Amino acid sequence: MDLFLLTFAALFSVINPLGSVPIFLGLTQDDSKESKNKTALWAAINVCIILIISFFIGEYVLKFFGISIDVLRIAGGIIICTSGFGLLSGTFSKKRGVSKKVTDDAQHRSDIALTPLAIPMMAGPGSMSLLIAMYQDYPEYSDKAIIVGAILILSLSVFLILRSANYLSKLLGASGIVAISRIIGFLVLAIGVQYIVNSLVAIFKI
């Protein structure tokens, strides 16, 4: 249960589906309720697939390019810190690579569930590097099953949050979403710093 909660909390903080609510509403403003629900579903499915592939295949990609896990943790920590700082400073979408050009292009396409909603907004480099590191940190099959379970529940949470985007927007308001994003941003920043510190300690011990 501890591993499940750790994985879910870390991924939820990095992915931050609540922070994606305003962008989701903007991209689907002219869609019907059924179309919005379908987009939310496919965005969650895409996030799930991307995270699971990253979890199981990422290690072999690192070996192919000769990248050590500690270097990956430092790189991932920097990306996570950048995302966290973006949430704190209110420049989250810019930090995720969702420029105005990408947003405008997405508004003219029927399928936005993969890009930019799943990639790069939610399943970005930060969450990918986090899972690749966890694959090596937890070698037991039972631990890997728990992590996959956390990914599945997280994807369900993404679907429910995006599906309830209109309600959440009315309930929390713009200021409420910003406040929650700032809190999550602080947690994300702390996670990124912890990753960098742990990696530096491991490198200098060697």
From TrEMBL:
It is found in: Cell membrane. PANTHER family: UPF0056 MEMBRANE PROTEIN YHCE. It is a multi-pass membrane protein. The chain crosses the membrane at residues 40-62, 74-92, 112-133, 145-165, 171-197. It comes from the Bacteria. GO terms for cellular component: plasma membrane. Coiled coil: none annotated. Keywords: Cell membrane, Membrane, Transmembrane, Transmembrane helix. This is UPF0056 membrane protein. Its main location: membrane. Belongs to the UPF0056 (MarC) family. The lineage of its organism: Bacteria, Pseudomonadati, Bacteroidota, Flavobacteriia, Flavobacteriales.
